[in-house]
Write a structure and sequence with these properties.
165 residues, alpha+beta, two-stranded parallel sheet, two-stranded antiparallel ribbon, 5 helices, 4 strands, globular
Amino acid sequence: MQTTQHVFFERSEMKDRHLVRKKIREHIADKAKLPILIFPEGTCINNTSVMMFKKGSFEVGGTIHPVAIKYDPRFGDAFWNSTKYSIMTHVFNVMTSWAIVCNVWYLPPMVKEEGEDAVHFANRVKAVIAAQGGMSVLPWDGGLKRKNVEDSFKEEQQKKYCQIV
């Protein structure tokens, strides 16, 4: 990774965030460099939804080339449910599966619109990716699967459900 210009950072460190943003802007400005591959969700989920994107990827400017990726689990499932399987069990399942089939769609380039902030731009890109992959759009991030849901968030969702019913 060190030979291919990866940018490492600690998400919880504000200094690191600013440094990464600066490095990405410099990279984008240098037309001789290859495009940057960023996974703005920051984690993987079960192939049914697209979670909230981290806004930092959309603050730096430049053109976004969205890619929708969706695994077909018929022959083998690439998704690792870490609450259900150990890493060794997951690796064994992947290595002994018939095949890992992945659909990849390269979508038209997108740029931030005049007056659009990073959050709205990220949501617009996320919606295009989700629509192409036939996935639902989730308003929360991947950290939710690793911690308890706040009661206020549960109550808000319950109120929305009651309104529908």
